[in-house]
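Changelog note: in this version the structure field was regenerated for every chain. One regenerated record is shown below for reference.
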Amino acid sequence: MTPAAVARLRNDAGGLVCVAVSDAVAEAFGLPFLEDALDHPAAEDHDLSYDDRSSFSLSVNHRDTDTGITDEDRALTIRALASAAAAPERTDFAAEFRSPGHVSLLRAAPGLLADRRGHTELGIVLAEAADVPSAVVVCEMLDDETGGALSPADAALYAESHGIPYLEGAAIVERLG
């Protein structure tokens, strides 16, 4: 993850830049689901249209960042999260990261796609298939005209125009799930 890649996510995708981690990595780091960690009435009685609970955990910055919001700072935090996820048992999470921060962590369901069919779980399934650490960047692509999620057809056009491979989530679920 480079600062230029973070800038591309910010500018071209538009959604919140997050890092999804596997349930095992989240457990090793002691990461809660955010709704369980918050002691505020706003964190109660979620009525999500898409699932029983949000995947959000803590937001973090690496301790070597300044404000944490710059593309350089977020790229450093994301690279450090991937490195930590490669060896979670050897990572002192609180010594390396601080919260709150500017990179939102998402905690995957334990059974991945068998438990939940979200971007978080799909990202971790892809990481496992690629044999890379269980920490992946995800960012919803937004449509500038509607403000909603970018349609799959428009996402495919974006990918084609930028020379990026495009895969439908449903096809990946069918193949790997």
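Spot check on this record: The radius of gyration is 16 Å. The chain is about 40% helix and 15% strand.
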